[in-house]
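subagent[fold] <- orchestrator: predict structure for attached chain, return tokens only, no commentary.
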Amino acid sequence: MSNFPGLRNPVVANQNPNKSVEVVQPPSDSVSSLSFSPKGNFLVATSWDKEVRCWEILETGSLNSVPRAMISHDQPVLCSTWKDDGTTVFSGGCDKQVKMWPLMSGGQPFTVAMHDAPVKQLAWVPEMNLLVTGSWDRTLRYWDTRQPNPVHIQQLPGPCDALTVQHPLMVVGTRTADRNLVIFNLQNPQIEFKRITSPLKYQTRCVAAFPDQQGFLVGSLEGRVGVHHIDDSQQSNNFTFKCHREGNMLYSVNSLNFHPVHHTFATAGSDGGFGFWDKDNKQRLKAMARCSQPIPCSTFNSDGSIFAYATCYDWSKGEECYNPATAKTHIFLHKPQESEVKAKPRTGTSIRK
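subagent[fold] -> orchestrator:
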């Protein structure tokens, strides 16, 4: 087990200590997912207020957000993803359905997938022209959106909490006592490739496949991230490191995002902090100042020039710590500097044992 070096994030009672650009007209309740279009700076947020919102982010010297469209579900919305051509958004949640929204053509949303419990994760796989949906009903389902029934239902060892795809690699994090991570080779999607126990001791919150498909990151409730390779011959390169912690306080790692150009990655957590890391050189590149509320989700845009993150109360400290006067929802846009997200030469002193 290793520590990335660097100073702890400073604790500040500030909604926006990093002077990020705030998105206008944010949701009225906590944000559950953020996703950028792969073809332009269109940002979609899903929320516990049952809404799916889209903004266009304009880069005209500074960043500006323009609300473009919004649709509703019958229950809180938990997840979203885009089709690879940037025309269409998928959203799923507690109403147990997935809606397909032809956003760019101005079309109306319609249901394309159903589960027996809330839908927690979505992934569009362009290589297969299929939508993968993960649910708390302990199944993955693969959908051809032109057909009413799934083309395959895959049983899972527990409720699906996390999902990541870099074709042909897919990794699913499940909520089980032994913290199962299920690995699939999507060239043979109906058979588990491998099932492992998470290298972390507590419940999995998020996973992110390496851009080269050779492994994945996993984040958990304990403020720790695991770096794990698929090939058994690479197991000596696996390690875990501490991140979203303050003294004896452990905070959930809620989001893991690889930079689309530099292939470094960002973490965001319930401590209100986010930062940028280099797994290959085992270095922390930049720790940003902590916001006064947790960060439940984050994402890069398609070229990595914008990092979007939400702040809101995430109920991790229970109802007794909820203060409606301060628990406002915000979505922020950060423009990473190259020094924050581009790998630096390894120094040999980058890890504290």
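orchestrator: received. Logging for downstream: The CA atoms of residues 153 and 176 lie 19 Å apart. The radius of gyration is 19 Å.
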